[in-house]
Write a structure and sequence with these properties.
Bound molecules: dioxothiomolybdenum(VI) ion
Number of strands: 27
Keywords: Molybdenum, Oxidoreductase
Pfam families: Ald_Xan_dh_C, MoCoBD_1, MoCoBD_2
Structural class: alpha+beta
Protein name: Oxidoreductase
GO molecular function: iron ion binding; oxidoreductase activity
Largest sheet: 7 strands, mixed
InterPro entries: Ald_Oxase/Xan_DH_a/b (IPR000674), Ald_Oxase/Xan_DH_a/b_sf (IPR036856), Ald_Oxase/xanthine_DH-like (IPR016208), AldOxase/xan_DH_MoCoBD1 (IPR008274), AldOxase/xan_DH_MoCoBD2 (IPR046867), AldOxase/xan_DH_Mopterin-bd_sf (IPR037165)
Radius of gyration: 26 Å
Distance between the termini: 79 Å
CATH class of one domain: Alpha Beta
Length: 707
């Protein structure tokens, strides 16, 4: 008989290496593009080479005669799909994933055909040989921010929130700041490219895929192909990064179409270059921030207007102006997110959507205001700590930003800082330090889980969670172990299979919290059942949970994680180099489940912040409408040599409204990080850089204090 009263210490809160770590480093862990299938065929997407127009002709015949080629799917022969449905978050799907339905080309890199062959090499060769004729039309890919056609667009928040008389409060302010900030187009670039294999088996569609949520992909594929969701199975055991880009995209849909037409398994993998057109990206932003404060630095007026872009086929908004709705109050408080439609691919969620670019503008503006007021930037923020949600009016479900700043300032050595810019030198380098606040929404979404007790005293947890590299599988193992009151070694966690029942995606920093809630609920009930002492039969005892009701009963509140970012930089204004010398992030982000992987998650976000501040920028060529250098040679991301001594830590912040105390840590690491670096660059040089990335040419042109 199973005993469940084994003495154990809490697993949650102790550092635990990844339970699948050995499989990953030995290559035993299979990713979507390498799971073996008998009789597998390979599809290769052909993307448009014009930015706008119409497909006039596709010369299929010569390609069908090439070695190994099995089929060419395009808008003339591909199966029809349904796009008139409400997908994730209740909105219609991005029709970019509904491939080959018409002859229109709305951007460069639009999927126009799939070539299927016996081998991947044959498919690629044939795809590259396929000649497509277009009727080309003039295109516009030029994003300039404010534009006569820009319009307010709701995303996961209302586009506009306004209270108070902005002009009156600005006029009455002792100090006013009015500045424009820009951020470029940025791409997720997960290590593992998008990949999917689709096959029909016993009347069921099975897709082995790399995604952030099997439930999500099942829902979209079932809707697109008018299938009963129960007849679709999506598996995604290991995922090499997602960052918002791994939902349903052209390659899964194309693979399902080809598998349907050919009645054999078909795999479609995106190349790194194709990902720049098909995986989504973060829109560039132009943001105007106006702040008005009294002589003590208390905000009377706050205005944050952001313009981002979307495609002509789908509406997506980067809600950068949303940050201020949580962070700071003012008598007049106006925020608005607007978009311009251009002949470009549809942008999407990218790690800290809204918060990442929005916090750059807002937290840089706060730094400028602090300078104008002659107040320390941390003190300025502390003076503007709101006691309730500035726009929502809701109570905060925990807001320990001041404690993050206090602890961060102590450890970073902020008290010794001379606020004057352009004074510190180390040889050719000018040195400076900067800080910024961070926040990210904390929430949970309904999920289901099962926990099975086996006669040998071990347990199996099943939940359609996705471990996109965060360590979610390991976190859930620790959580289940504590809930079952057994050591983690007795718990097996199986994830990434839609047959385990509906569950939240790995997204919105809500994955682990949502899944942990469901796992805990099932484990608690199972422990009660086992306590009855009736023994465990050979087939085990399985308990299923569903957290829909519990999460629905949560009282309304402004739920966020918070943090304080610190950076020290060295700037050579002659060569234009900016080197980050050290970073510190202190977070109040709920109970930390696994300090080892949590630290990696925070630090990974902070590295993104370095990358965002100094490196990342996708450039669009106005003439062709496509990217210049759509690869990891042309698109710079921070590498080891760019990343200095980074430290991330946290303060006690367990959320009493969550069964495990979790808030969520997936995205907050990047928030404020770029602003802290930009603020440090000002402190080093005396020059404000309001456009990211802070490239060498920008640094040289802006100059600095004379030697
Ligand atoms: Mo994240 S951008 O919610 O995957």
């Amino acid at each position: 008989m199973t005993t469940v009263t084994t003495a154990h210490k809490n697993a949650v809160g102790t550092a635990h290496t990844r339970v699948e770590g050995r499989d990953k480093v030995t290559g035993a862990a299979r990713y979507a593009g390498e799971v073996p299938f008998a009789d597998l065929a390979h599809g290769w997407l052909v993307l448009s080479t014009v930015a706008r127009g119409r497909i006039r002709e596709i010369d299929t015949a010569p390609v069908l005669g090439l070695p190994g080629v099995l089929a060419v799917l395009d808008h003339r022969n591909a199966p029809r799909v349904e796009t008139d449905y409400a997908g994730l978050m209740g909105s219609k799907p991005d029709p970019t994933c509904a491939v080959f339905q018409h002859d229109r080309v709305p951007h460069l890199g639009w999927p126009v055909a799939l070539v299927v062959a016996e081998t991947s090499e044959q498919a690629r060769e044939a795809a590259e040989a396929l000649v497509v004729h277009y009727e080309q039309e003039p295109h516009d890919v030029d994003f300039t921010g404010e534009h006569p056609d820009a319009y307010a667009l709701d995303g996961h928040m209302p586009a506009v929130a306004e209270k108070g008389d902005l002009d009156a409060e600005l006029a009455a302010s002792a100090v006013v700041l009015d500045a424009e900030y820009t951020t470029p187009e940025e791409h997720h670039n997960p290590m593992e490219p998008h990949a999917a294999t689709a096959r029909w088996e016993d009347g069921r569609l099975e897709v082995v895929d790399s995604n952030q949520g099997a439930t999500w992909v099942v829902g979209e594929l079932a809707s697109l192909f008018s299938l009963d969701p129960a007849s679709v199975r999506v598996r995604s055991e290991h995922v090499g990064g997602g960052f918002g880009s791994k939902g349903v995209r052209a390659h899964q849909v194309a693979a399902v179409m080809a598998a349907t037409v050919l009645q054999r398994p078909v795999r479609v993998v995106l190349t790194r270059r194709q990902m720049f057109s098909l995986a989504g990206y973060r829109s560039p932003t132009v943001q105007r921030v106006r702040l008005g404060a009294d002589a003590e630095g208390r905000l009377r007026a706050l205005e944050h207007r952001s313009v981002s872009l979307t495609s002509t086929v789908h509406e997506f908004v980067e809600p950068s102006a949303g940050v201020a709705r949580v962070m700071y109050d003012a008598d007049a408080h106006h925020t608005a997110n607007r978009v311009v439609r251009l002949d470009v691919p549809t942008p999407t969620w990218m790690r800290a959507p809204g918060e990442a670019p929005g916090s750059f503008a807002l937290e840089a503006a706060l730094d400028e205001l602090a300078e104008k007021c002659g107040i320390d930037p941390i003190e300025l923020r502390l003076r503007n700590e709101p006691d309730k949600g500035p726009v929502s009016g809701l109570p905060f479900a925990g807001r320990d930003l001041p404690a993050c700043f206090r602890e961060g300032a102590r450890r970073f050595g902020w008290a010794d800082r001379d606020p004057r810019p352009g004074l510190r030198r180390d040889g050719r380098w000018l040195l400076g330090t900067g800080t910024a606040a961070a926040s990210f929404h904390a929430g949970a979404m309904p999920s289901t889980a099962t926990v099975t007790a086996h006669p040998d005293g071990t347990f199996t947890v099943r939940i359609a969670a996705a471990d996109i590299g965060t360590g979610a599988r390991t976190a859930l193992t620790l959580i289940a172990a504590d809930a079952l009151r057994v050591p983690p070694e007795r718990v097996r966690v199986r994830i990434g299979d839609s047959d385990f029942g509906p569950a939240m995606i790995a997204g919105g920093s809500m994955g682990t919290r949502s899944w942990a809630w469901a796992v805990t609920a099932a484990a608690d009930e199972l422990r009660d059942r086992l306590a009855l002492g009736t023994g465990v039969p050979a087939e085990g005892i399985t308990v299923r949970s569903d957290t829909t009701a519990a999460i629905g009963a949560l009282a309304p509140a402004e739920r966020h994680s918070f943090g304080a970012q610190f950076a020290e930089v060295a700037v050579d204004v002659t060569t234009g180099e900016v080197r980050v010398r050290r970073m510190l992030g202190i977070f109040a982000a709920g109970r930390i489940v696994n300090p080892l992987t949590a630290r990696g998650q925070f630090e990974g976000g902070m590295v993104w912040g370095i990358s965002m501040a100094l490196h990342e920028e996708a450039i669009r060529d106005r003439a062709t409408g496509g990217h210049v250098g759509a690869d990891l040679a042309g698109y710079h991301v921070a590498t080891h040599a760019d990343v200095p001594d980074i430290e991330a830590d946290w303060i006690e912040d367990a959320d009493p409204r969550d069964p495990v105390g979790i808030k969520g840590i997936g995205e907050i690491g990047i928030v404020g990080a770029a602003a802290a670096i930009a603020n440090a660059v000002w402190h080093a040089t005396g020059v404000r850089h309001r456009s990211l990335p802070i490239r060498p040419d920008r640094v040289i042109l802006a100059g600095g204090p004379s030697a």
